[in-house]
Amino acid sequence: MRSNKIDKETWNDDHNIALLRASISILLTHRPDIYATLALRGVSENGGNRINQKLQQMLKKLCATYSSAEGLVEEEIKHLKDSKAAGGGNNGGTPKKRKVKDEE
């Protein structure tokens, strides 16, 4: 059996950006899981907005440590919004809970 050997590349800035972009995308996509963390319960009011803002701030600080990574967080947020608007929903996760009025 013949295996297809993959030539190893030297790690470069393009790989850094790709890894950062993938990490940002995963974290932003799975924010509801982060909001559900018990240790964050005390700061989770307003639908987790404070957690979301802090997460984005932390990701931006991380990106600032790499050249050419500025704006990645904003790009991924826009990409998620665009895909959601195009019918991507919430990427296969659980649907958002909506308040239902009790009828009497």
Task: Provide structural commentary.
Residues 95-104 have a biased composition (Basic residues). Residues 81-104 are annotated as: Disordered. It is a single chain. The protein is an all-alpha fold. It has one domain. 57% of the residues lie in helices and 0% in strands. The chain contains four helices and no strands. Helix 1 crosses helix 4. The protein is elongated, with a radius of gyration of 18 Å. The model has no long low-confidence stretch (mean pLDDT 85).
**From the alpha-carbon coordinates, what is the Rg to the nearest angstrom?**
18 Å
Distance between the termini: 71 Å
Largest sheet: none
Helix content: 55-70%
Compute the number of strand runs.
Answer: 0
List keywords for this structure.
single chain; 104 residues; mainly alpha; 4 helices
Layout of secondary structure:
Layout: H1 13-29, H2 31-35, H3 45-64, H4 72-88
Helix pairs in contact: 1-4
